[in-house]
Amino acid sequence: MSTTRQHPPGDLGREPEDAGADAEADAGAASREPAARQWRTLSLRGVAGTVPTARDFARQALHAWGWLPASSADGRAAAEDVLLVVSELVTNACLHADGPEELRVSFAGKVLRVEVVDAGAGRPAPRTPHRAGRPGGHGMFIVQRLCLDWGVLRTPGRPGKTVWAELAAPA
C-alpha cells in the first residue's frame, strides 16, 4: 500500500508512451479531446457484505481498465490504493449515513474517480488533530493522503450526498 501521493495535487502524471505520436497527428488541431470517461455503477441498497462487494466490483473495473494484473510495484500500489479508498468511503457511508446507496467508479486518461452516494446529511472530514495511535477515525485521513483530491457533492432540494475521490493512474 502506498502512503504518499504518486503525484502532487493537480499533476495528473506523465503522458502515455504513445502521446508523442498522437500529438504529431493532431498538430493542426486547436485542442485535443480528453479520453472518453468509462463509468461503472453498482447499486448497494440492501446488499449484504457491502464493503467486500464494493471492493470486488472495483477490482473487476481495475481488471477491465488494465490496472490489474499490475506489471510493476507502482501499479500494484496504485490498484491497492483504489481498493482502500473504496473500502474507506463505503465504510464511512455504512457507519455515518445509514449505508451507501450506490458506488460509481470511472476512469479517463490519468485519473480514476470513486463516488459513493448515500442519504446522509453529515459532511465527512479528516479527524483533526490526527492521532495515529487512536483506534478508528482514520478513514478520511487515509483518503486525503492517497488521493489527488476529494470532496462532497450535494443536490439542492434533495437529501443525501455524493462523496468522491480521485486517484492518479499508475505511471
Across the major sheet, the strand order is: 1-2-3-5-4
Proportion in helices: 25-40%
How many strand elements?
5
Radius of gyration: 17 Å
Distance between the termini: 16 Å
So what's the overall shape? globular
Low-confidence stretches are: 1-33
The helix/strand series, from N terminus to C terminus, equals: HEHHEEHEE
Number of helices: 4
Largest sheet: 5 strands, antiparallel
Strand portion: 15-25%
Mean pLDDT: 80
Helix/sheet category: alpha+beta
Question: How would you describe this structure to a colleague?
Answer:
The protein has a five-stranded antiparallel β-sheet, covered by helices on one side. The chain is globular, with a radius of gyration of 17 Å. It has four helices and five strands; from the N terminus they run αβααββαββ. The protein starts with 18 loop residues before the first helix and ends with a strand. With 171 residues, the protein is α+β, with helices and mostly antiparallel strands. The chain has helices at 19-25, 50-64, 73-96, 139-146; strands spanning 38-43, 100-108, 111-118, 149-153, 161-168.
